[in-house]
Amino acid sequence: MTLDQLRIFVAVAERGHMTKAAELLGISQSAASAAIRSLEQQHGVQLFNRVGRNIELAQTGRRFLPEAKAVLERAAAAHDVLEHVSQTITGSLSIAASQTIASYWLPRRLASFHEAYPAVRLSVTIGNTRQVETTVLDGTADFGLVEGRTESDILRRAKVDVDRLMLVVAHSHPEIAEVSRGHPDIRELRWIIREGGSGTREVLEDLARREGISFADLRIFLVLPSNEAVRQAVEAGAGATIISELVVERAVAEGSLRSVSIDLPKRDFAMITHRDRQASLAQMALKAHLGAKAGETVRG
């Protein structure tokens, strides 16, 4: 007795017609008839009564039908278990993320990923964009999450979100001179910035370039290694900074910081992976969970 024989028996029993059952199962009428005949001969029973061109269940067939269905249901359940086991995503993931992403964007998303994939172990290291790029290139991290530009042409980059940037000063900061409406004179501001290699610092560098100003001509007062240190220094009145809205939105809402009107482009949060390394199932699952769009190898 085989599962195929049982499937054919149930189909014929439910439809009362050999040809219709064969069409449903995608086999020939002769193959269906042979399967039923073989099943009857193997066990010395008659499962169907042939009445003219029609067939109907014999008494033995009526007793056998629920048992046959139960066997097929158990076989389907067993198949589902094996399929689920084969697709269970396990392993470990090493993630390198820049500070803004690691501190403000990533934690909730990793928590929900863990709910969906509890067998995957996660570890996160934090650095600036340049440091994250290095860890992905040397294989220390499986993939990175950055907001700044990357330099290597062997990295694949996929956008996962968009970040809004703000120019902020302390609430008590004097009014800021403008070169034109909505364009503050950035040469007159005293700046609190992140270290070299930071995507946040890169935004100010780009702004100075667009304004035709040498970065060296800006009044850099403090260079600090973290977003939190920058925010606290600005709140204390030390100067101005350009920083992610994620970092300062609460301080702006509470009034310790105020936003200065300026046209700043949004920037992408991006996942970076090494183009020559095979992605594991866990990596593909996290990429999908974070909403990464199909990546393409890019430089810068």
Give an account of the 3D structure.
The protein has 300 residues and is α+β, with helices and mostly antiparallel strands. 44% of the residues lie in helices and 26% in strands. It has ten helices and 15 strands. The chain has a six-stranded mixed sheet with strand order 4-3-5-14-6-15, sandwiched between helices. Strands 12-7-13 form a three-stranded antiparallel sheet. It has a two-stranded antiparallel sheet with strand order 1-2. Helix 1 crosses helix 3 and helix 2 packs across helix 3. The longest helix has 29 residues. The protein is rod-shaped and about 100 Å long. The C terminus is likely disordered.
Count the E strands.
15
Main sheet characteristics? 6 strands, mixed
Q: Helicity level, as a percent range?
A: 40-55%
Strand content: 25-35%
Shape: rod-shaped
End-to-end CA span = 64 Å
Features of this protein?
alpha+beta, 10 helices, six-stranded mixed sheet
